[in-house]
Amino acid sequence: MRLWVNNQLIIDNWTEHAETEDRGAIVLKAGEKYSIRLDYFEQQGVAKIKFYWAGPGQAKGIVPQSQLYPNHVVHLDAAYPQILPGAGWSSQSRVPRLYQVEQPTEDSRTICLQPRQPWAL
Hints:
Elements lengths: L1 E4 L2 E5 L23 E4 L12 E4 L2 E5 L9 E4 L12 E3 L6 E8 L5 E11 L1
Antiparallel strand pairs: 1-2, 1-3, 4-5, 6-9, 7-8, 8-9
């Protein structure tokens, strides 16, 4: 598995292994939103993952749903190398919204978008 927080790699254990607990540490500021990306794979058998956090004076526990915010993902029809982090993107939904490309992935069908502002165009 690999864990990134604000595009900083915190845990990197991209190996085949039995059930294990991987740990990492990062200093975060209370009240701020941080992007979280967690990748894992299943080679043989059944893959499972649990995502915990702990803080000073706080016991390890599962990250509460109330502290997670949606990540907007767009699946494209092909790879577009000209789409770079920071590029703007407008949705074509009923209420158009403006987004900013956070991190294009090598998966030609996926691009991660982060809301630029909570307002509509």
